[in-house]
Amino acid sequence: MAEERAFRQPGPSGARSERALRSEPGGSAESGAVDLDRLIHERMRLGIVSVLAVNESLSFNELKAMLGATDGNLSVHARKLEEAGYVECRKSFNGRVPRTDFSLTPAGRRALERYLDHMEALIEAVRDT
Questions:
Q1: Hey, how many other C-beta atoms are within 10 angstroms of the C-beta on 118?
Q2: What is the pLDDT of residue 129?
Q3: From residue 64, how far is each of 100, 102, 111 by CA, in Å?
Q4: What confidence score (pLDDT) does residue 82 get?
Q5: Strand 3-10, strand 58-59: pairing
Q6: Can you name the CATH fold of 3-127?
Q7: Nearest-CA neighbor of 5 among 30, 26, 23, 28?
Q8: Are 113 and 12 in contact (CB under 8 A)?
Q9: In the chain, which stretches have pLDDT less than 50?
């Protein structure tokens, strides 16, 4: 028998609406997380947007060191966030040395806020049981 409880889920505007969180016996933890922003939910991408949310801008090497990422891993995930419009990438030269800097866009900040609101609602719903 499924148990159902309400939680407030943020909508596109950031306003919260009541939703039902259904948990099936033996069901997966993902069952209540279907509306999460899957782009941000991935561990490395969540790390990128979180670190950029508290820093105005970071170089590729700074971001790589903070996240413990490899060049290739960081490049792939940063590109996905850039394609979604969540992260801005600026390339320049410091003398002859190439430099890549990243910053969070307003759309990326809104997406992170919605994601965090959703996670808080899920946590609240679970704790209220």
A1: 23
A2: 77
A3: 11, 11, 22
A4: 98
A5: unpaired
A6: Arc Repressor Mutant, subunit A (1.10.10)
A7: 23
A8: no
A9: 1-5, 7, 12-34
Contact in structure between 31 and 45 (CB atoms under 8 Å): no
Residue 18 neighbours by CB under 8 Å, 6+ apart: 6, 7, 8, 9
Q: What is the spatial distance between Cα 41 and Cα 45, in angstroms, rounded to a whole number?
A: 7
Helix axes 71-83, 60-67, angle to 10 degrees: 110
Residue ranges per domain, the chain?
3-127
**Cα–Cα distance measured from residue 7 to residue 98, given in angstroms and rounded to the nearest whole number:** 48
Closest CA to 14 of 127, 98, 116: 116
CB atoms within 10 A of CB 64: 17
